[in-house]
């Protein structure tokens, strides 16, 4: 995959937390601890007007806000006869107040209530992550009215895979498509781990710069990580336009403290979202996250239990017999790691079950594992990762190995064939676009592009790796006990 990634470094350099500007569908006031105005968004006009708006917020108590927490809803305030929703949050030395015209009350008056009453029970009624994702995509679309809602999951390399979608007619389907990691640079992912929702109601906006009121104070130093109105990266706005979407929202899916994926929503035209609806969307993301975590945990526990049972059977069989390791080579050993072949290597000798490489190749693999010094060794791309691989015929694509002696070359190895498959990308990710400014730009086309993946095996799962480690411990125990018995017998 490496060759598919454009230069991420340039993208990761953009200071997205301190843009010094906001999206202009609301106003921002920055005040210090004694409520003195420090900066305001230019779309308020001037400092006189900004102070007049600030006075209207006198009744709002900021004392209880804690630094580095998401904005809190402070109710609604009338400004020139227009009701405005007020959000407030705290930085170390400042308070940030954000105002947006309150949306007219429509059918979704109590979006949070609907989530609790119908959505959560539905989530609890399904058993797979894919089914959870499908429910979430539907619900998100219903709540917001976006034309397309996607749920996607990041893989180990950071590429995203669309697990479920809900779309209106006229929207491109991205079902099963993959989006390259380069679409979302590292500093953006870091921010989305912290702040779980981003809304862009109209990507064609012109940013409203923050204006400082204290001479010499540069408002570009103000951290907008938590601000709902934060102006977004112009590169990302270009991406949205290339994709044909004027409005977007993304909600983080956090599993075990990591950014697991995103719920990503698009609309061909602009789409304003009220504060209560956004709060409900964020909540939906949390519900989904918790359910995914629970399902994944359950699935892993079930897999580990099954594999432990198998390990016990294998070990019992060995312990009952004369405990020579070649007795390991049964189909049970294959099942333990879902492997096509397995072998026990004891110095120059080897015993095999299933599809295994030729003897010479097996020896070279054993050398490679021994040189690594790792007690549990894994690779999904042996042809790429093994030094001098080309010299050895019949190499497997995947190798899992445990080494059971520090002195001797005693190993158990599992082999997997290549898992040839096709990845359907939303646009050719190799097409790096460099502008006349020398910068990297988002790709222009999202038309499906198919990549054939060869030479790579299916991944060894965490449960399989743990089980291999447990088997290793058990074998070391058996071997030691047997050596002891032999020694006792000899004396
Ligand atoms: C941000 N890129 C993003 C975001 C998404 C994507 C979801 C988060 C912002 C948001 O919530 O709208 C990408 N959008 C996607 C993907 C899908 C989608 C994968 O809808 C799939 C359906 N982007 C590029 C390149 C660069 C880049 C080449 O393609 C860098 C040069 C940058 N993307 C970029 C930056 C941000 C971003 C800087 C941060 C935007 C911000 O939060 O300010």
Explain what the structure shows.
It is a single chain. By secondary structure, this protein is of the alpha+beta class. It folds into 2 domains: 2-297, GAF domain (Beta-Lactamase), CATH 3.30.450.40; 321-420 and 455-490, Beta-Lactamase, CATH 3.30.450.270. It contains 11 helices and 22 strands. It has helices at 8-12, 47-56, 111-124, 129-144, 186-194, 234-243, 275-320, 331-337, 359-372, 382-385, 462-490; strands spanning 21-22, 27-32, 37-41, 72-79, 82-90, 94-101, 148-154, 160-167, 178-179, 197-200, 208-212, 247-255, 258-267, 341-346, 349-354, 376-379, 398-403, 410-416, 421-426, 433-434, 440-441, 448-453. A 7-stranded antiparallel beta sheet has the order 1-11-3-2-6-5-4, covered by helices on one side. A 6-stranded antiparallel beta sheet has the order 9-8-7-13-12-10. A hairpin with a 2-residue loop joins strand 14 (341-346) and strand 15. The longest helix is centred in the middle third of the chain and has 46 residues, at 275-320. It starts with 7 loop residues before the first helix and ends with a helix. The relative contact order is 0.11. The model is unreliable at 1-6 (pLDDT under 50). The structure holds biliverdine IX alpha. It catalyses: ATP + protein L-histidine = ADP + protein N-phospho-L-histidine. Residues 128-286 form the Phytochrome chromophore attachment site domain. In the N-terminal section; belongs to the phytochrome family.
């Amino acid at each position: 995959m490496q060759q598919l990634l454009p230069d991420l470094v340039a993208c990761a350099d953009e200071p997205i937390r301190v843009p010094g500007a906001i999206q202009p569908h609301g106003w921002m006031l920055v005040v210090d601890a004694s409520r003195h105005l420090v900066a305001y968004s230019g779309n308020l006009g001037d400092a006189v007007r900004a102070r007049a708006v600030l006075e209207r917020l006198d009744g709002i108590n900021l004392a209880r806000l804690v630094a580095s927490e998401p904005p809190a809803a402070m109710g609604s305030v009338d400004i020139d006869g227009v009701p405005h929703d007020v959000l407030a949050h705290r930085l170390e030395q400042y308070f940030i107040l954000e105002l947006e015209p309150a949306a007219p009350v429509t059918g979704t008056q109590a979006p949070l209530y609907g989530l609790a009453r119908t959505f959560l029970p539905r989530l609890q009624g399904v058993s797979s992550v894919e089914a959870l994702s499908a429910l979430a995509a539907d619900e998100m679309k219903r709540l917001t009215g976006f034309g397309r809602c996607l749920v996607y999951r990041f893989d180990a390399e950071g590429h995203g895979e669309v697990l479920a979608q809900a779309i209106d007619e006229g929207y491109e389907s991205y079902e099963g498509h993959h989006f390259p990691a380069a679409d979302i640079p590292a500093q953006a992912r870091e921010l989305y781990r912290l702040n779980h929702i981003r809304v862009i109601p109209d990507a064609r906006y012109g940013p409203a710069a923050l204006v400082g009121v204290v001479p010499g104070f540069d408002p570009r130093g103000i951290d907008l990580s938590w601000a709902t109105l934060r102006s977004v990266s112009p590169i990302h706005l270009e991406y949205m336009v290339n994709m044909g979407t004027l409005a977007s929202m993304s909600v983080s899916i956090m599993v075990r403290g990591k950014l697991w994926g995103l719920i990503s929503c698009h609309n061909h035209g602009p789409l304003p979202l009220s504060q209560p609806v956004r709060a409900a969307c964020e909540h939906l993301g949390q519900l989904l996250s918790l359910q995914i975590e629970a399902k994944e945990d359950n699935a892993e526990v079930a897999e580990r239990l099954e594999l432990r049972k198998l390990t016990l059977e294998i070990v019992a069989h060995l312990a009952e017999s004369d405990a020579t390791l070649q007795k390991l080579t049964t189909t049970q050993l294959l099942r333990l790691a879902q492997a096509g072949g397995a072998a026990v290597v004891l110095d120059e000798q080897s015993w095999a079950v299933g599809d295994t490489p030729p003897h010479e190749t097996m020896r070279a693999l054993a050398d490679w594992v021994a040189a690594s010094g790792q007690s549990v060794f894994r690779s999904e791309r042996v042809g790429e990762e093994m030094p001098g691989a080309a010299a050895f015929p019949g190499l497997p694509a995947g190798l899992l190995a445990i080494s059971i002696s520090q002195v001797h070359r005693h190993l158990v190895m599992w082999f997997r064939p290549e898992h040839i498959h096709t990845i359907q990308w939303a646009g050719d990710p190799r097409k790096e676009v460099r502008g006349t400014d020398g910068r990297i730009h988002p790709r222009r086309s999202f038309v499906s592009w198919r990549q054939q993946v060869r030479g790579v095996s299916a991944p060894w799962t965490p449960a399989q790796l743990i089980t291999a480690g447990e088997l290793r411990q058990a074998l070391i125990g058996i071997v030691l006990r047997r050596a002891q018995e032999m020694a006792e017998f000899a004396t």
